[in-house]
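Next up, a specimen:

>
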Amino acid sequence: MQANTTETPSVPEQPPRRKFLAKAALGAAGAATAGFPMISVAQSPISMRWQSTWPTKDIFHEYALDYASKVNAMSGGRLKIEVLPAGAVVKAFDLLDAVSKGTLDGGHGVVAYWYGKNSAVALWGSGPAFGMDPNMLLAWHYYGGGKELLDDIYKRLNLDVVSYLYGPMPTQPFGWFKKPVTKADDVKGLKFRTVGLAVDIYKGMGAAVNPLPGGEIVPALDRGLIDAAEFNNASSDRLLGFPDVAKVCMLQSFHQCSEQFEIIFNKKKYDTLPDDLKALLRHAMEAASADMSWKAIHRYSTDYLEMAAKQGVKFYKTPDAILRRQLEIWDQVVAAKSAENPDFKKVIESMRAFAQRACRWQNDTNVDYKMAYNHFFAKKGKG
């Protein structure tokens, strides 16, 4: 017989793509077993469309971008925040309503901008805060009852938002002027820009106040629509062009010495998020708050010195007599607003109780850093 030479055909080698998919499936199963959240190849990230209340060039808009960048990176592709500058969708002062209505998913601004809705909200940023610095005011907000008070006010205003406060701001200048301000009477009759409860302080000093948004201040100064203005800090003021229209900046003031930023989300959009992403948004805010503080020290100090050295800006300390006058006017503002607005009274009493304890601790505890600075620099002519 002839031998049977037919052989069983061998199984062809598995194509590389099939091997990859098999491994990917095993990897996904393992990750799911381990409890890690997965985003499928076909799943799109949750997108959020934001707007800030600042122009593109302002460092404040950069802070909004910094927060979005942290969220986008930490979410591993599951969440994507796009941040537009002021005016891209709505005007700066219309941001809160736009987020509440869902026209925007979120935004970046300051609580003082909503002063027209309820004067009490401007206490988060305007006024001397009973001697609290901005970081202490955030401590009151998160640990002393401030957040609950603000959330309640927003709820009763039918604002469908979730609010996070962060980013303590250094003390803001008294303002930019054509010539130095030496006494309180120098402010009388000036057409002046500020916002929030600072409006009441400067009005009490005799100024005619126009609460313009940031991007409109320098053009108004240039055209003579206002005589003087305050905004916030050396970097923002420089980028907005203040040194081009005024050469005198008065440093130190109680009108906004404890302000912070606000991140807001449309509540309906926020509530659709899984719990881990909600936690991520909060913790990214905390990380961004610290990062902003560090960046601000670097950038503000650099721009402060360069405006003096390269742009001819003269910086002066606001006289103590003017600072004391601000405090006297503030007492009047608090009495008037508390009498007409129960929310204002409730917030100011909560803030006062926290400040009385916290400020005593801070003032007794902290060393005088200026003494050390003067020892190393000022006495040697390097300050």
About this structure: The radius of gyration is 27 Å.
